[in-house]
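@channel sequence for tomorrow's demo:
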Amino acid sequence: MPTSSPPDRPPRTIRPHVAIRPLWLCRVCAGPWPCQPARLLLLLEYRRDRVALSIYMATCLFDAATDLPRLNPDPGPRPDELFHRFVAWTRHT
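structure tokens (generated this afternoon):
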């Protein structure tokens, strides 16, 4: 019995979850960046060099620590929250 194959579909593109700066929100889902999809994509991109991912995210933390207090100085983001948001998730578990 012949089977029918699904119609040809164009390849699905992955929309990059990148930050809108200086707000540090995701351009796709509007969540705090790096959102969960961004983290997964970054882990995939840096799968062979987790140290480079940590360094990249530390530079993002540095930039966000400069940008975010300018937008909302009172009370401003707490340093420990920014660390967990940008860097802590990059370590091996």
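heads up for whoever presents: Strands lie at 19-20, 25-26.
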